[in-house]
Amino acid sequence: MGFEQAWLSYQRREVCGIAENITGIYAPLQNPVIKSGAEELQTAFAKIVGTRPVLYSDSECGHNRGSIRLMMKEGLPTEGYHIFEEKGMITVEASDANGILYGAFELIRCLQLGKNLEGINLTKEPVMPLRMLNHWDNMDGSIERGYSGNSFFFENDEILVNERIVTYARLLASAGINATVINNVNVKDSATRLITDQYFESLNRLSEIFARYGIRLFLSLNYAAPMELLELDSADPLDDRVRAWWKAKMKVVFEAVPNLGGFLIKADSEGRPGPFTYNRTHADGANMLAEAVKPYGGLIIWRCFVYNCRQDWRDRKTDRARSGYDNFIGLDGTFLDNVILQIKNGPMDFQVREPVHPLFGGLTKTNQMLEVQIAQEYTGQQRHVCYLIPMFKEILNFHTYVKGTDDTVQDIVSGRTFHQTKCGIAAVANTGNDENWTGHDLAAANLYGFGRLAYEPDLTAEEIAEEWITLTYGKDEEIRKELLFILMNSWPAYEKYTAPLGIGWMVNPNCHYGPSVDGYEYDRWGTYHRADHLGIGVDRSHNGTGYAMLYREPNARAYDTPETCPEELLLFFHHVPYSFVLKSGRTILQHIYDTHFEGVELVDEMVSRYERLKGKLPERIYERTMERFLHQKEHSREWRDQINTYFYRKTGIADEKGRRIY
Ligand code: GCW
Asked: Quick one: what percent of the chain has pLDDT higher than 90?
């Protein structure tokens, strides 16, 4: 067993009486999504309970003890479901097919978790309308920032349609994910041609598999496609020829691939083309495309990750953190209704700690989506364990003060604050063609967790982790306890032994892996820590770049002074002397030393806890995970020592506790 089915790798479990007695599943099987749900239940019962209920293509089974019925019922919330048991019969009802599918997977989850189905009565509805993955897969099979092998969507400029795609769709649906973008936002070469007839047939087949699991296929789009496909000499969004070209193009595309949900666009960012070339705004660009896809119900998801990547490190006025906000805030209210702005969780780039992006709470008249990254580009690249759901929860729970005092990022992207339905959450995916999907076995908790969080953000990070552990490894108290400890301590540990107090980066350029304190310090990417022998940090207060003032009160005021700034973000917002004293009574310098030693100790503790599972987990899985832990152990020491030594050499001040610093 190599966990080819991840958390759907069913094993026999002890189940309650009702589950054992199920012999029939009644459902309107003519609906392909409901059929998937019914078949999933059938397979799960066969493998978990050891019985194989018969499928009947009628949901009207009367009242049949020992049956499950899946039925449509009006009035329930979109993609939600109601499950209940009565006299030995289990009913899953929903107002749409996705709701039924999610209800079926919920029942399977109950089986896997060993829950008693007797008297079950459960109503759920997804909080985020769009629950989406963004793959950064290239058509040559490589994956940008991919840490679990190659793409399973593409190889040699061809689209792959095979069994793995089906398992992929099952995994996503079981976690509640309903949309996916399969190609990299950096659209180049053959990927530009995905909107030509060269690829329609395979795309259509792919989209049909996804559709059976309630997942909508999206593509990343090359903004300059009319030029790169050699059909026009411009991509000016206000040029009538360009607008007509896109309209005609979208007609062809949607006719050929009717299940397509729309497009994701990275424009004017890191060398990608965009409307700036023609002195047009991002609203001009997005709206042109939105008009073209509107007749087909298509969405345009436009990324706000726009900044100057040719900065001069000597320049202290330009602040990359400001750029997303500055580029988009003035456009609020000018986007068409089928445009969604997709905003990274923080203003920089998926660091282990960042403030929440100020566009959340800034924008009030625009559809918005949160972008997080489960590919651990800056958080250990799926070689270090780093369970990110606690971070995502902090982000979702951040108070923006855009409307009253209670309003959070979650309220905005769930559509509650501004009464929107075109919104949600996307994660840069962490999958590849590795046998276990995510390279590190424990990184699958981020994939599963992301979907669960998007559907039910009120679940705690612990609840999600526990669920994932039991689904994956079975019900065993020791496994649950040790893996839960590891997962829940992994993000705090990573934060402790890497860049301190919100400053971020300090990684090797390009690959973004491993410590290099000054790696980006004199580079063009706008990512500086400004450390000298006296102090460290970037002044983003009103005296500095003014970034802190982009937030609504009371956030702006709190961020603006070192004394009131949340300490975990202190160096992000302020340049302070090493002697600055934190609430703990420690100086910044001592805090850096201490946390770096603590981080490594925590890793050691995680590893020794994992060792206790030897003999309990399947050997191959135990060994391959252990291999990664051993690397993390060594590599966390490298981080600790490089960072501690750097600051020791800058300051000449020794560790109060006399520990070894090189
Ligand atoms: O910082 C960057 C990553 C790039 C990525 C980019 C983005 C897809 O290092 O690899 O490009 O973020 O989000 O567009």
From this structure: 96
